[in-house]
Amino acid sequence: MPAFPPAAPFPPGATFPPGATSQAFPAFPEAAKEAVRDDVLRANLRRATHTIRDKRARAVTELADWDRLRAAGKAVKDHTLRHLDHYLLQLEAAVTAAGGTVHWAADAEEANRIVTALVLATGEREVVKVKSMATQETGLNEALEAAGIAAYETDLAELIVQLGHDRPSHILVPAIHRNRDEIRDIFRTEMAGWGRPAPEDLGDDPRELAEAARLHLREKFLRAKVAVSGANFMVAETGTMVVLESEGNGRMCLTLPDTLISVVGIEKVVPTFRDLEIFLQTLPRSSTAERMNPYTTMWTGTADGDGPSAFHLVLLDNGRTDTLADETGRQALRCIRCSACLNVCPVYERAGGHAYGSVYPGPIGAILSPQLRGTGSDIDATLPYASTLCGACYEVCPVAIDIPEVLVHLRERVAQGGPVTRAGIRVRLRPAHGHTAERAAMRAARLLLDRPGALRTAERLLARARRLRPRRLPGPGRAWTDTRTLPDLPAEPFRDWWLRERGTRP
């Protein structure tokens, strides 16, 4: 087994070490401040996100019933979440009846412990992996490494990330922050330490890079006896696992090894096989802008002489039950990981994925990570503020998650400092640093807005004093006016204009 290369250093806004917890990450504003100074990063992100979102927009307009599909997906997910206990038990029974084994993991540590024990029981010391956000969430690769097990990523983008001692920065395209020159250099310098080296004359043509990765991975596919995957969907009525991918590496991992271990979040279950009809239309168009995925792999338990002889399903909670208890925040669990929200987000486009300090970047990460992990760390307390609330993320979401609504909800939680439920225990979170002034401003605004007479008087006074408007605000407001120009105040309040024009009070 080759030795694992050392982790890269961790400057804010750049790469960060494997296995780091949320406590190790800087607050989002600090990380984003560093990221926006990187011209190459911003150029890579702008080019990639604009290309993907333009293709998605064209793919979606091909379906006249897109809005109905979106509503149907939302309805299926909401129904499933309301009855999650029932469908998970049904899923367990169906998987078991089909020859699989189901394991329940309350948190990341337990999931890693289960998977590590299963791999060690086979006597193997290598595993190949299908792209899996759940195992990234738990830090499985690092846990396996600590047990002397090499975990090889087989998705092209994930391979780039792994060889570069990096972390994913996008849900669909984990290496979106890398350009072709960087990928070529990574392959040239790192591939030999993980297996078959890259050709000495490797160029930056995408076909050459793909071929180098194909040759590097082929020997691993043919040698591996154990594979680890996630799943896009789990069908409760049949116990079927579903993986959608574009390269075929997933199909190799899911069919060649003797043992297959799938780590899947409990929210990925859907009630019936027919429900897949909706998501097999909306997910490809929202993610890769394709009518259907090139590879859609489905398997149900085990079968003699066909595929793995042993199948283990690890159902991962890791904060999902706590999220489910929040009536507003639970809609984040509808997410099907299409990444459409990232590609339209002006904040993500400039800050990149690493600034979010989570395997889930972008708008969905800004509402999912603070719920799964709590808002006790600086990074999680600032993620709900990593948005302009423009609403573009909601407009493109194929399951209609109202991300701006959840962001405002989480901002209120952070500003108030709790209480929330974590792991079944009622706790009060500490208010995030720097929000004392904001809470005071919100309370002052509430007092004014609750008194219509005082509000009308204040509006008239401001209108009459508009010539005295300062160019810069004092105190904390200076940070806002340093990069913006204060708008001109109107000559009269709206209420007075309405009374004069319409003869009635608004």
Automatic annotation (TrEMBL):
User: Does the keyword field hold Iron?
Assistant: yes
- Boundaries of every Lactate utilization protein B C-terminal domain copy: 410-500
Question: Could you tell me the keywords of this UniProt record?
Answer: 4Fe-4S, Electron transport, Iron, Iron-sulfur, Metal-binding, Repeat, Transport
UniProt-listed GO biological process terms? lactate metabolic process
Which InterPro entries does the record associate with it? 4Fe4S_Fe-S-bd, FTHF_cligase-like_sf, Helical_ferredxn, LUD_dom, LutB/LldF, LutB_C, NagB/RpiA_transferase-like
The residue range of the signal peptide is: none
Instruction: Please name the Pfam families in this protein's record.
Output: Fer4_8, LUD_dom, LutB_C
| 4Fe-4S ferredoxin-type domain boundaries | 332-401
**Recorded GO MF terms:** 4 iron, 4 sulfur cluster binding
Q: Where is the LUD domain?
A: 90-304
> What is the name attached to this protein's record?
(4Fe-4S) protein
